[in-house]
Amino acid sequence: MKTKILLDESKLPSRWYNVVPDLPAPPPPPLHPGTREPVGPDDLAPLFPADLIAQEVSGERYIEIPEEVREVYRLWRPTPLIRAHRLERALGTPARIYVKYEGVSPVGSHKPNTAVPQAYYNARQGIRRLTTETGAGQWGSALAFACAQFQLDCEIWMVRASYDQKPYRRSMMQLFGAQVHASPSPLTASGAKVLADDPDSPGSLGIAISEAVESASPDDTRYALGSVLNHVLLHQTVIGEEALEQLAMVDEAPDLIVGCTGGGSNFAGLFFPFLREKLQGRMNPEIRAVEPEACPSFTRGRYAYDFGDTAGLTPLMKMHTLGHDFVPDPIHAGGLRYHGMAPLLSHMYELGIFGAEAKPQRECFEAGLLFARTEGIVPAPEPTHALAAAVAEARRCAETGESKVILTALCGHGHLDMAAYDRYLSGEMQDHPLPQSRLDEALSTLP
Ligand SMILES: *Cc1c(COP(=O)(O)O)cnc(C)c1O
């Protein structure tokens, strides 16, 4: 009985998989915030390099991974697929649980899978500096690491609440050479405006995005986004391509794929290659997104055009949204506190390609703790949502005797999230169900 299913370095994927040409209909285009016409490549050029814009709108099924990117990927890829025998035993379940572990990356999450190619394509176009936002600090540290690989400057707006609560994520960004500001900051017009209204604002991802986008205006500077966009989902498919090979090595195919969704990139990266196999009739997994009940974009959001940020600087994207003014309660899964969802995933959800459920955070931490005690890996708060769904399914299997194969991505470790575990262990952690009135209010300002 294998515990770790490892791929040889020679099996590192050589191409990313683009799911768009395999869908029955393409997703609706992003719209210009001023004209409300579909945005063209020229509109995006001030923000992103040409190669990434081409990937954003690509109709090609496969895109070659540049050798310079694969060379950096080899620092930690291929990542292990773990059969969670000890968790299964603790649950007394006949289900077989497989976990694709992305916590072995240089910053402890899946984010470098896209940060590295984003930095590479910018550097190749002669860009000198990247700006971005970060919530909990995972994306910021990934981009800081990636910029260090290609000698780019990196400037990061970090949501004030996390800046104060997670000093070690900030240290990691600085260690990799980035410059970090607490957001809202007085350095940008969007930040200054928020501070004028509320000098003690804890910030939000939407505000930090406005600041980073605003700061990307000089010619040698571009902006980078860590989730949501098509090219980000594309880069993350290395997760699923490897997992597909690894499961084949032990003659397994998943019956259920679950993933946590903030902007949707680790979930998409895991399941897109399996969906390709499903569409070709080679397997038939059920696919399910798991989101926090405090920020339930799929299960309670509206499918509508909305801004990606608070100030309304980004293109309008058709997506499941809670409204760009929505500020979620301060749950510990910082990476899942985003008002919107990837437009590509939102489109696929409307097509019925996968399902979704929302979980309260205490159930998630309970699963995280069980996973840590059985498998010896402390999960980040975000993937505990997917683990909680896997555990619930495995418990159902224990009752029915069904021996399902469950696959999930453990998209990050929680070594820098001990304050969250402290709160859970002390019994102080609260759930934050979202009152309908707050949701209605946030949705009332949709453009
Ligand atoms: C950023 C992050 C997420 C949320 O982003 P997705 O694009 O939905 O994957 C989830 N887990 C971890 C560990 C993260 O760093």
UniProtKB/TrEMBL annotation:
Residue numbers spanned by region Disordered: 23-42
Pathway: Amino-acid biosynthesis; L-tryptophan biosynthesis; L-tryptophan from chorismate: step 5/5
Name of the top EC class for this enzyme: lyase
Enzyme Commission number(s) from the entry: 4.2.1.20
Biased amino acid composition, Pro residues: 23-32
Known catalytic reactions: (1S,2R)-1-C-(indol-3-yl)glycerol 3-phosphate + L-serine = D-glyceraldehyde 3-phosphate + L-tryptophan + H2O
Amino-acid biosynthesis in keyword set: yes
InterPro entries in the record: Trp_synth_b-like (IPR006316), Trp_synth_b_CS (IPR006653), Trp_synth_beta (IPR006654), Trp_synth_beta/beta-like (IPR023026), TrpB-like_PALP (IPR001926), TrpB-like_PALP_sf (IPR036052)
Cofactor: pyridoxal 5'-phosphate
PROSITE patterns named in the record: TRP_SYNTHASE_BETA
Protein name: Tryptophan synthase beta chain
Gene (UniProt): trpB
